[in-house]
Every structure is written in structure tokens, then in C-alpha cells.
Amino acid sequence: MEKLISFYCNNELLSVQINPAITLLDFLRNHKKLTGTKEGCREGDCGACTVMLGSLIKGKVKFKTVNSCLMPIADVSGKHVVSIEGLNNNELNFLQSQFIDEGGTQCGFCTPGFIVSLTNYFVNHISYNVEDAIASLDGNICRCTGYVGIKRAVQNTINYLDGGNSTNHNPVNHLITKKILPPYFSELPKKLKQLQNKTGSSLKQKGNKLNIVSGGTDIFVQKWESLLEEDNYFVSDDTGLKLISKKQNKIFIGGAVTVEEFLESKIIQKYFPFLKEHLRLFGSLPIRNRATIAGNIVNASPIGDMTNILLALSANVHLKDKNKKRVVPLNKFYLGYKTLNKKKNELVEQVSIPIPGKNFLFNYEKVSRRTYLDIASVNSSILIAVQNGKIKEALISAGGVAPIPLFLKSTSKFLSGKELSSSTVNHSIEIAKSEISPISDARGSKEYKTLLLGQLIKAHFIKLFPELNVDEVLK
Amino acid sequence: MRSYDSVQHVRGESKFVDDIAAPEGTLFGYVFYSPIAHGKIKSIDFNETLKVSGIHAVITAKDIPGENQIGGIILDEELFASNEVHYVGQPIALVIASDRVASHKGVKKIKAEFEKLKPVFDPREAFEKGNLIVPPRIFSLGDVDSVWQQCDYLIEGKVESGSQEHLYLETQGALAVPIEGGGVKIISSTQGPTAVQKIAARVLNMPMNKIEVDVPRLGGGFGGKEDQATAWAVMAALAALKLNQPVKIILPRQEDMRMTGKRHPYSSDYKIGLNKDGKILAYQSWYYQNAGASADLSTAILERTLFHSTNSYFIPNVKATAYCCRTNLPPFTAFRGFGGPQAMFVIESAIHKAAHVMGVDPSFIQKKNLLKEGDEFPYGQKTENCRAVKCFEENEKRFDFQSQSVRVKKFNDESKLYKKGIALMPVCFGISFTTTFLNQASALVHVYTDGSVNISTAAVEMGQGVNAKLMSVASRIFSINPDRIRIDTTNTSRVANTSPTAASKGADLNGYATIDACNLILERLKKVARELLSADESSTIEIKDEFVHMNNTKTDVDWVKLINHAYVNRISLSAQAHHSTPNIYFDRTKMKGDAFAYHVYGTALVEATVDYLRGTYVIDSVKVVHDFGTSIHPVTDRGQAEGGIVQGLGWMTLEEIIYNDEGKLLTDALSTYKVPDIHFAPKELEVHFLEDVPNPYGPFQSKAIGEPPFMYGIGGYFAIINAMKEFKPDKEIIYNAPITNEKVLMWLHSND
């Protein structure tokens, strides 16, 4: 089952014969003895294991952060893995020294993850702002500092790097000059290119009883140990599944497109400009860098963020098994709890979304215990067109209130054609309540979830239609 | 001054237990634990486990050569359950394998059968049934019963506060290596190395001198590794000696969350009486502490609840009663504040409710009753250098409480969907172990011939910065560059009979011991310098900035030269010193005494915004005036304050521990148990160091810092509640922490 995998680990070219399902975390710690990368939770919720991953894209190295605990070593083939050790110069760099002097490190266990995440932010930006830099830490938990010292360190480092001007520059060179990155980074595009020519894609394998593993952000939480003994088909680098394209009035999204690629895509930003803001509530940056749109769909979690949004957008799932293809509307894809209208060997090749007409407005609401990097207690999306005070069409979904990601069919039907008024809103909530079957669990009691869905429906309307009488909607 | 530790941290080079290169042949242990909350073990079958490839052994109670007993204060806790199980997560066996994956597989193959017994989870139910770990403890001052009728206002109420997971980023773990002569070396992530050594000796039936415990550092402790690091270390040692191979146990996060104890949940009642001026005349409280299945540190925590029952206020008549209730949950344990926060939440709730009844702002009652110099606590100690009023007034002034109130009122008048609330939170926290004998520490200082210094103490570095402080005090005594000083690991062979690093007292106790040990060497060095410089008795000799100064004039004798001279003249360059806190005592027959060396004071102002539609909230700001004494290491002190505040806010807001009806933990992962992240932390968090406040009872006039700031987080609860009240001014307020989004929404929109 072992494979030969070649990649750069910090400044070292490695070619290892290894089980491709071993996580990058275990490889770094146990095989390479690079123990700066820590295991804090093994579910992508703490960020102590964060590393940077550099991929050669059109001659340039594009870096992103990933949770190494959820990342099979298979997926680093031909890439550059940067752990905290790979960022060290002989002397402390400015960012590191600021973490010390501003009290951004206490016990030190989470610190490497924070330094890596921030370095990745600086590598990916030519101009900086504190809020974005802080947002790039949405996947890192610190239990000691209260984040205050970390924020000061971020601010000071931005001041240092800006140096009074923020003219266009090559981020890697700039950071090497400022000694945030070690000099070897400048050689990597060339080295990765040589490596890529040698490796190609040797990992693809076709068989009948394969697990299809894409981003792996859930399967590596659920069963990292059994994956080590199974035959896996790692698709996340399959270029054929990475495309986002527009055909007629539909957008097609490849099965291996990640959430971050989706929300950064020019096409998506053009036709769904509203999604970027909402998808910041999806996981964390390192999770979004790995988790795929298709994975969120087949995961079938009743509280998935992406599925909830796609249900309101009338998405379709394009399945493929060898040469057999079929299309299933997303709202007919879920048959029961974690039961799909999909055969084991069928792969989600694409997801398609019709481009909504110009009159349509969209809103997404999510309430979770914590706003960021948390799973919703209840979420809801709405796509709605109103003309002359009348609802032309409304499509509304609800998560966390049923065994499946739920399209509120009756509620949507009820709303369409009705007058836009507070009584319509309140009536629609009653209908929504008849469509749901929430249970009490760690994310809230069923009474709470029922109440909350109604509140989120009110929030949709209050947010989208300021002309409504708020007091009446609130009644 | 940068500490050695922090430099390693930012480079990813610090070594925690699991990072240390394990010796060849190290085996891995994984724990099999009770799946039920209460019952008898009927049968247990390891046959299938032993067939798994890579499994070396299964260790149970039967393999223990000594006592199967790890209780610290009260002997009521088995290392491995032998006949009965008392909570979900109680260890029953340890599977030893050549690698982690095999050990996990082995545990899954264990077949065990139980006869279920009825569990109890609610402390009041345990109390009704008489399941108390110790008899009730009572603190009293004056006579509450005689003054109730004099009060203009009498208010009673019930208060709940929830548990809290420590969530140290480094999970529990230990590595045990057999050493010659049948002994064992244990590298443990513990706050209490001596506890590990002592209990290992008891379980292994061997003298303590054959057990060496070494603690490099902890990836966070917060009290969670004071008592509860012991079990894993002892298990590893037991297995290592049985198999004569090194054994490592590192708990995966989920197992750590399921098996280890957390902050004690409390259910409390109170009765408070005030006169019409807002003066509190009497206060009576009853605390039902949910202790879990065994005593652990619960009794000491229970006492600290009583010590802090009146927080920062002088109340002439107090009667506080606490019950230590045994339930079928994992033994609850030490957590930053140690029972103090639970007590303060009750009195603050009482004041809040009284203010509501009286139609005044809670700050009116708070201010009216603050401790003044010479006031008596319910345990008989009187305040000295009391800074309660000073901190409160400085906060009001510096952060302009009056105009903040006006601004918030204006916002609330104009806003329909969002409302703001503000709250002041004074804190007074006593410093010392209330178990007096624990207030001791020692230090061992070596100066090497190259001038470098190595210091070992009883203090464990867990992120609280004790090493930075020790380095700072040693460099001041010797007047040398701190870079010459290294604070070594905490090791029972170098420093014996250590008290746990806890009670915020690590830097005080070990700082004083370090000062004393350094001074012993310094005196010898001065004598050497005197001889070297042929100085007469009237000359003054000092070391200043690495050079010997004679009669206030710098000489050419530098530190290294001086050390070398001492060495060749056969002068000892090592010293050991022991420190114990003077003048403290506590008489448990009377529940009176000067239990604390001193108190720490401060006041926080917290602002929050509540979203009416969604029931969510944001903590906008926390602004604190805190009495740090004269800080030894301001970066460390500030960090402790900031981190404590956010952790306290977490306890009061997001962090909810939920068990199901069968005592199984539902919030057993970071996906279901949420702690503050960088977005949740208040946008504005300002900590002002109260100026010119030396503390004669702390090293270099400093004050302890670890726990007190945690309790500022309680202000977050009241800021949120005050914002909620703006939507429904007449609705009865809930005093049930944490105030989760769910509770907010249900309170705002339910009809009852």
C-alpha cells in the first residue's frame, strides 16, 4: 500500500516510501522529529498543527495554511511543506520577537501554529490590514493569552513590514529582505518546478472498493486510523475536478474545488457577490483551504453551511461512475440521515448552480455557540425576488432542524406569490415549524432550535427589506 | 527581558512531554475506561485484545504491587477501578502496545460487562441522600439571624454556575523509563511533581527515593494538572516497571476531556439583607458543590469558596455554609480561582438582584460596601494595605463610568434590535494556600566556573511565566545579565518535597527561595571580593552590572573573574534555600485565622451588546484597574491578566459542559466545547496597572497574578444580563451561568 512521495519539507527535498494515508502531522512529528508542529485536538479545531503548503501554480508558488492533522501525506506530493522549523533564521525574526515582547506567547503550545498562520498571511498579501491578518487566525486557539498580546504583535509587525509605504512588491522577496522568511524561499519556485517534472501524478489508482478522499477534513476526524488500512483514492489534486466555469446561465464547480477556491473565484464573485461574506463563517481558513464543496454535500451533515446555501440556490449534483453520469437536484439528494441518492462508486464530478435573476436577493443566517469556527445550532438561507410589494419567488432552507440538510419546500411554496408583509413573514414561520423535526443535542434543545429558526426567518426579512415594519415582524 | 522559554516557543523548539525523543523501545499506553456512570464490574475479557498485533500487555488493578489508591487529601480514589465504577471515564485498564494505533485497537476489543447501579448527578440530590464527602463547612461573622429584621430589603435567590474544561492545549501525558535498581524516572506534564512521586511510591510500593519526577514544562495547566496529572504518570510508571521498557501515555483530546475532572459546578442559595442606603447588613449563603465521584481537591476548593463568599465587600454579619456533594461524574478539580469564582458569582448575583429590587444600579451597592482598611473578613483576618476602594474609584475615573453609562443609555434609546449593557466587577482574592503547610518552597542555585547560573526550584513553568520571574529576581540579586541564567526543569531529585505550583503562589514562594539561595552565594562572593581587593572592613563591596564595586567605584573584577577566584579558593558556588510564608495560619476548629499573606484587588468595567433577533452577544470591551504590586516582569503580569480575563469570560458565556442523562459527556471535543477564539475576545481589552502600590509581602514588592484576573470575567455575565434587561425590564432575571446564546434567546422570547 506504500507509495513513493516526493516533496520539499522546509529546505529539504524528501522522497519517502510511505503509507499515503498517514497524516502530515504524524509524518512531521514521528518520522521527521519536527516537533514544533503540535497535536492539540486532531480535528482541525485548534490550529496547533498548522503548516504552510506551497504549490506551484503557473510558475508561482501559492501558499496556504492547512491543518496537518487532517492532511494525508499523499496530498503533499510535489509541494512545499513549511513547518515552524522552516521559518526559523539563526536570530529571532521580527514577528517572533514581537510575540515574546507583547506577551503573545505563554505556554507556547499553540504559538508555532499562530506564527505559521501569520507568516502565511504576509506571504499572500502585498498590503496588509490588521483585521484581515487577525481573520487569518480564525483557526488558531490560544488558551493562555486572551489573544491581546497576539493582536499587538500583529499590529507591530504590520507597521514594521509596511515601513511607511505599501507599494507593490513581491511578497516573498519583501519578507526575505525583512528577515521574516529565510532566504531559501527564493529558490523554491525553481526547485518545485524541477520536482514537478519528475513526479507527475503517480497516486491515482482505480479500483472498486476505494474510499474517495478529497479534502479529508471530516473523514480524518472520524476514522484516521482505519484509513491507514484501507485503499484510498485521493482526488484533491485531480486537476480535472478543480475547475469553476460558466456555461449559459449556470456555474459549474468541480468536485475537488475547495471552499476557499470557491469564494476567491472571480466567476463566483461576479455572479454570487454576496457569498464571500457569508462563507467566512464556514470552518476556518485552514479548513476552507482543504474542505471541498462536493465534500460538504456528500458529508450530508444536517448543519453544513455550504449545503444550506446551495439548497436555496437550487444547486444540482453531477454524479459520475466511470462513464455513467447523472444529475440529481440537491433538494432530492438526501434520503435520510447521512443517506444519499448516490452509489458507493459514484463520484461528485461537479456541482452546478443556476445564476439567479437580477431581481433576486440572498441572505444567509447562522447562529452557533461561537460565531467563528463553529457548527451551527441552526442556519438558514433564502433566495427571494420581490416585485411591486409581492414575493415573486422565494427559496428557503434550514439546517440543524432535521436529519438532513433541509429545503423548506412548503414554506418556499407558501411565500411565493404572497404580499411582502409582516404577517406573511410570521405566517411562513408557522409553516416552517411544521416542516422541521429538530432534536436536542450539544448544540441546543429542540425548543431553542425551533424558536431560533423562526428568528432567523425574521432576520432574513428584516435584513433584506428595510421597508418592513420591524415591530410587527418582531411580534 | 526575554525568558528562555518564550524564545523556544516562538521557534517551535520547546519540548513538551510528547516532543522529547523517547528512548528506543518505548511502548504506548491507552486507557480503557468505564462506559457507565455507576455499577459493578461483572466480567472483563482481554482475550481479543491480546490477539491484536503489537499489543504487549494489559495492566489492571491486579498488577499493582502497592496500594490501588491515588487519593491526595482523602483516600477515596482507585488508580484502576477494581470492583465498582463511579463515573463514565473512570480508568479500568491500560493497554500497552508498540504503537499508538495498535493500542487504540486493543482497547476497542475489550469486552466488559457491568451491573448497573443508580447514579446521582445533581449535587442537591446527593446532599438529600447524605452523600457528602466531608461534613458541611461553615464560616461566620457576627450574627445574621439577629439582623434580618433590621433590614429594609431582604432578598433571596438561587444561583447556578457551570463547569469548565481546562483545555490546556497540551493534553495530559507522561513518559516513564525504568532505571537501575528497580526505580523509575517519570517525565510528567504535572503541576505537582511531588504528588506524582509520592503516589507512584504508594502504588508501586517503593521508597520515594527510587522515583525521579522531571517536569520540563507544561502546555497549559490552569489547575487541571495539579492533581489530575498523577494518574497517567503513575500508570506509565507501573507499566514501565512491569514490562521493563519505557512507556508513554499521551491522552488524545477526546479521552482527556472525557476522563479528567473540570471546574466544579455549583448550585447555591443566598439571602441578603440591606438597609435603604444600600449597605449590606447580612448575607447568608449555601453552596452545593458538585464534587464528582471522589474527593480530589474538592474539600480545599470548598473552603476557598467560603473564603471568598463576600468577594470585595465588608459585610458585618455573614454565615456561609458549603456542602461537598459526591456524584457520579469525573472528580471535579482545581481550576484557576479554585472555588473563589463560584462564590463571587453568587454574591454578585445577590447584589444584582437587590439592585433590581431597590431600583438602583448594582454599582451603587458595590461601591457602598467595598472593603476598607482594617475590615474583617468572615474568617477573622483583617485587611491590610486594602486597595478595594482605590481600584474601584480609579476605574470609575479612568474609564469614566458616568459618561459610559450615558453613552450606553443613548445607544439603547435609539436602537431597537441591539442593546448594550455595562457592569463593574470588583475582585478581592487572597494569596496563599489555605492549607498552611503547603506555603513552602525551595531553590537550588549553582554558579558554574564560566559564570553561568543554573536554578532549580519547586515551580513548574506552565505558561504563567514563573521562569521569567525567577530569572529576573536572580539577575537582580547577582546584578548580572539575565542571559547567564537558566531555569532548569522541575525535578524531584534536585528539589524535594515540592508543593504544587498552584494558588497563584509559585512566583512568590519560589521567588523568595531563589532570592535567599542567591543571597547565600552573593555573601560568599562578596567575602571573596573583599579578600581579592584587599578591602578593609569599612569598605563597601557590591556587585553592580556584572562588576565588583568597592566604595561605589567600579573595579576591574568582573563576574567571571570573581567566580573563578571563588572556585580556586575552594568556596562553594552552590546554595540551597528554603522559604516558608511567615505569620499565616488557619484554625479549622474555629474556621478563623490569618489565612493569607495578602490580598489582590482590582475592578473591571465590562460592556456587552445583545442581538434581540438572534439571541447572540458580543463582549465589546473589558477595562481593568488592577493592583499588581510592583511588577517583577510586566509583560508576564499583563499577559496573565489578559488571558485570565478572557478565560473568565469563556466560563461565564460560551463554555458549557453538557452531560446526558446517563452521565456521558456530550461536549467531549473542540467541535462541541467552544472556548474563546480571536474573534470572540473583546475588541478592546485594557489593563491599567494601579500605580505606586508596593507589596511588602511579595518578592521585590510584587503581587501574585495567576488567578485573580479570571474573576473579572464575571462582569461579562452581568453586562450581558443588563443588556437583556433593556429589552424586557420587568422580566425576572436568570442567574444561571454560562449565559449561552440559547439561554439569551429563550429568555428574550419565551412567554413565561
- The percentage of residues in β strands of chain B lies in 15-25%
Assigned CATH class of the largest domain in chain A: Alpha Beta
Report the oligomer.
Answer: heterodimer
- Could you tell me the mean pLDDT of chain B? 98
Q: Report the count of strand segments of chain B.
A: 27
Into which percent range does the helicity of residues of chain B fall? Answer: 25-40%
Number of domains of chain B: 3
**What form of chain A results from the Cα inertia axes?**
globular
Number of domains of chain A: 3
Intertermini distance of chain A: 62 Å
CATH architecture of the largest domain in chain A: Roll
CATH C-level of the largest domain in chain B: Alpha Beta
CATH topology of the largest domain in chain B: Aldehyde Oxidoreductase, domain 4
Please compute the radius of gyration of chain A using only Cα atoms: 23 Å
Provide the CATH topology of the largest domain in chain A. Answer: Ubiquitin-like (UB roll)
Q: Tell me, briefly, the overall form of chain B.
A: globular
Backbone CA Rg of chain B: 27 Å
Low-confidence stretches of chain A: none
Helix content of chain A: 25-40%
Low-confidence residue ranges of chain B? none
Number of helices of chain B: 19
